């Protein structure tokens, strides 16, 4: 489980294809703290560490993950948001994030707002709790954010300078594809309502 509070970014150093899987080699400054089998969220996608060197580590994404997320679009040199899994005694500074991306969205606008920014995203509405609500939570590329201007199939988020500078939001432009994980509580409520109709 994650909180959506991104620790750092890592640069994609290499991408290797193995049949329908992709191995991503990432350059990060905390490799000596990692261990094989550890779970790390990459742009919000929970992946398992399979190899470690002094300054890189490797994770594998299967076809389902590549189809549902923006990881299949990554190129060497791209920045990826990273968050290690929460410890049981950690403060929940963001919201409950599972690392299971629901779908992607496309950035349609970036507006400067007196030192901060508004980012607008559009996505394909699919039902089943895959939606946003005003002042609710959503994870965008693994970043826990508060929704504003929630509409069917679109929403806007406000990004403060710290988040802009310490995540890959600094590289998101209109047309960029991002990962979305909708609020787990909303998804359970939607499923229960469907079941008890």
Q: Strand share of the residues?
A: 35-45%
Neighbour order of strands in the largest sheet = 1-2-5-4-3-6
Tertiary shape: globular
* Number of beta strands: 12
Low-confidence stretches: none
Gyration radius from CA atoms, angstroms: 17 Å
Give me the oligomer status.
single chain
Mean pLDDT: 93
Structural class: mainly beta
Count of helices? Answer: 3
Which percent bin holds the helix content?
Answer: 10-25%
- The helix/strand order is EEEEEHEEEEEEHEH
Largest sheet: 6 strands, antiparallel, barrel
**Gap between N and C termini:** 31 Å
Word description of this protein:
By secondary structure, the protein is mostly beta strands. It is built from three helices and twelve strands, in the order E-E-E-E-E-H-E-E-E-E-E-E-H-E-H. The chain has a six-stranded antiparallel barrel. Strands 7-8-11-10-9-12 form a six-stranded antiparallel barrel. It is globular. 32% of the residues are buried. The model has no long low-confidence stretch (mean pLDDT 93).
